[in-house]
């Protein structure tokens, strides 16, 4: 059963390359929440890089970022960064950037507040 779940995660990760599949996944009511819950480092049965990849493909959407943060992704990702999971740091930075940095346009340029 563990091998099947890992193969399914890998397949879903590959399917997320296509924008149409990402759109379908975003519309699924519990898709993002379920993927975030599978990031839990206490579940050591399968490789987390596939779940990180799935969420990383959705991080460009503000709505998806909000869902990830609300589901506790930052806590799980910090733990995954500590154990050096591929892509976790970049995803954590992408989620954190949206919360902590406000960017305003000033005279044609940008300034960080």
Automatic annotation (TrEMBL):
Domain of life: Eukaryota
Record-given protein name: Uncharacterized protein
Organism: Ilex paraguariensis (yerba mate)
Lineage, top ranks: Eukaryota, Viridiplantae, Streptophyta, Embryophyta, Tracheophyta
